Every structure is written in C-alpha cells, then in structure tokens.
C-alpha cells in the first residue's frame, strides 16, 4: 500500500486473482475506486467493507471523559474489513515476539522477493509495488531466506503451516466470530494475540483485544487511570465497552498521535556492573 495526498494505492490477492487499485477521496464522504486485474470486480465489491461501512458505531457509549473527548474529535473512525485473512495472518505471525520495526523489515524483504508484480496499471501507479504472495509461493521460500530476513524457525514454521491452509483460513471471512477464531486457533502457533490481530485487520472486529501484547495493557491502563495494569486489569477496564473494546483502544492510540493521551514513562533499570576475575 502507498498513501499519498487523498490517494491510496493498494494491491491485493483476491480469490479471482491479483488486483491493483487506486482509491481517491473526492469529497467528505465520497471515494472513487479504479481497479485493474483479475480481482478488480471483487475488490470493488468489497470497497465498502474496506472503508468501514459495515462497522456499527451506533450504541457506542464513551462513558469516560477522555474516551468521549476522543470520540468527538475522531467520530469518523471506522474499523475496516479487508476479508483477506491469510494476508493479515502473515503480517501478524511475523510480528510475534519481535519489535514492529523488525517485523516490518522482515515482511518488506520477503514480499519484495516473493511477491508478484501487480497487474498492468496506468503510469501514475507507484513503482515497486507487489502483490501479496500466494500460499504456494510462501511454501517455496527457502529456510535461509527466512533466516536472512530475521525470522526465527518458530515463526517461519507457523507461517508455512498457515500457507498450507491459506484457502481454508480465508474462508474465516464468511464465518461467525466464534467459528472463525476456532479455525484460526486450530493452527499450531496461532494464539490469542495473533487471532485478535487478524480479527481486527481482516474481519473488522471492533471488539477484538490483543491480549498477550507486551505493551498494550500498560498503555491502556496508564491512559485511562494513570496507573499501569496487566492483561487482567485491562480486561476489567475495557469491560464497560464490550462490543467496542478495540474501538476504544484505537481512539486512545489516535489520542497519542494527536498529543491528547500521554503514554506511560519508560522506567529503565540501572545496569548491574559485572566484575570479572581472571
């Protein structure tokens, strides 16, 4: 994906084939979509989901001064739904137990080497874009290329298991949440955190919380109460927003981006000096 001034270019591997699309905002609530490739019609048909049209904000009660302030400022916020479960899974698996920077670097390297060239598009399309590899393409990635990209054997094995089940996993987009999560969790290496990330990205689930995240509970606790909490504490804090818990988290994250929400200070423990005797 390439984001410009009111224009977004995106590639995708739809069931009917690859697609490259240009989305251009033409009004406050209007978006023009031009798409090329075998999957163009499917991509256009799902444009509403991609822009969050299926996300139901009605019934959301901020019930907290800070959340209410953020909701007023960012009332446009919708949780998008790509419907591309395997695509979301590859990103989430690569993000397991590493920093965002490490995960993005690994994903960029692997996609550029093994992704397909996008369908023919006008000269205005950005250079260097690729289409997400198919499950078969992922299974053909040599082990040393995962190593060179900084992906350990555990994450590589999980990603390859998902690649072998790419078709079945993409079917989760048409299942109820409980059934989708059960199918995702049936794959070894897909836990609570990874399944929640996929629900947020591919299934547009405004209630999915990424329990098990290294920093999320600390962030949510400090933002809402000024104190740090663990996953159990975060679960209690977010309970009043059942059905919209991920929405609240996104609002808090937007608050950080706009300087409204303060993050918890980083406490660095003093390094212990080690005395060596020879």
Can you tell me about this structure?
The chain is of the alpha+beta class. The protein has a domain at 2-51 and 80-201: Orthogonal Bundle (Endonuclease III, domain 1), CATH 1.10.340.30. 44% of the residues lie in helices and 10% in strands. It contains 14 helices and four strands. The protein has helices at 40-45, 47-50, 65-73, 85-94, 100-114, 135-139, 143-148, 153-164, 166-170, 177-185, 192-201, 216-225, 231-238, 245-257; strands spanning 2-3, 7-14, 17-27, 30-36. The protein has a four-stranded antiparallel β-sheet. A hairpin with a 2-residue loop joins β3 (17-27) and β4. α4 crosses α11 and α10 packs across α11 (192-201). The longest helix has 15 residues, at 100-114. The protein is globular, with a radius of gyration of 20 Å. Mean pLDDT is 94; it is low at 274-278.
Topology of this protein?
Layout: E1 2-3, E2 7-14, E3 17-27, E4 30-36, H1 40-45, H2 47-50, H3 65-73, H4 85-94, H5 100-114, H6 135-139, H7 143-148, H8 153-164, H9 166-170, H10 177-185, H11 192-201, H12 216-225, H13 231-238, H14 245-257
Antiparallel strand pairs: 1-2, 2-3, 3-4
Termini separation comes to: 56 Å
What does the average pLDDT come to?
94
CATH hierarchy, class of the domain at 2-51 and 80-201: Mainly Alpha
Rg of Cα set: 20 Å
Shape: globular
What count of helical segments does DSSP give? 14
N-to-C SSE string, H for helix and E for strand: EEEEHHHHHHHHHHHHHH
Name of the CATH homologous superfamily of the domain at 2-51 and 80-201: Hypothetical protein, domain 2
Question: How does the major sheet shape up?
Answer: 4 strands, antiparallel
Structural class: alpha+beta
Within the largest sheet, what's the order of strands?
1-2-3-4
CATH architecture of the domain at 2-51 and 80-201: Orthogonal Bundle
Counted beta strands = 4
Helix fraction, binned, reads 40-55%
CATH fold description of the domain at 2-51 and 80-201: Endonuclease III, domain 1
Low-pLDDT segments, ≥5 res: 274-278
């Amino acid at each position: 994906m390439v984001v410009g001034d009111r224009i977004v270019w995106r590639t995708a591997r739809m069931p009917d084939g690859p697609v490259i699309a240009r989305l251009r905002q033409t009004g406050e609530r209007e978006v023009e979509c031009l798409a090329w490739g075998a999957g163009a019609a499917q991509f256009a048909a799902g444009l509403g989901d991609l822009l969050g049209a299926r996300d139901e904000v009605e019934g959301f009660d901020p019930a907290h001064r800070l959340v209410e302030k953020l909701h007023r400022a960012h009332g446009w916020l919708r949780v998008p739904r790509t419907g591309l479960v395997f695509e979301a899974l590859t990103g989430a698996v690569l993000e397991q137990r590493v920093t965002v920077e490490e995960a993005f670097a690994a994903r960029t390297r692997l996609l550029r080497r093994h992704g397909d060239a996008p369908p023919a598009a006008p000269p205005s399309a950005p250079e260097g874009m690729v289409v997400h590899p198919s499950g078969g393409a992922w299974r053909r990635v040599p082990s040393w290329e995962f190593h060179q990209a900084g992906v350990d054997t555990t994450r590589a094995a999980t990603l390859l298991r998902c690649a072998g089940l790419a078709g079945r996993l993409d079917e989760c987009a048409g299942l109820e949440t409980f059934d989708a999560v059960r199918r995702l969790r049936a794959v070894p290496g897909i836990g609570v955190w990874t399944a929640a990330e996929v629900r947020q990205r591919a299934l547009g689930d405004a209630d999915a919380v990424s329990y098990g995240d290294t920093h999320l509970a600390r962030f949510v606790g400090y933002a809402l109460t000024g104190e740090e909490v663990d996953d159990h504490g975060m679960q209690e804090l977010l309970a009043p927003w059942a059905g919209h818990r991920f929405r609240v988290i996104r609002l808090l994250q937007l608050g950080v981006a706009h300087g409204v929400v303060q993050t918890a200070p980083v406490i660095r423990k003093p390094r212990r000096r080690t005395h060596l005797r020879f």
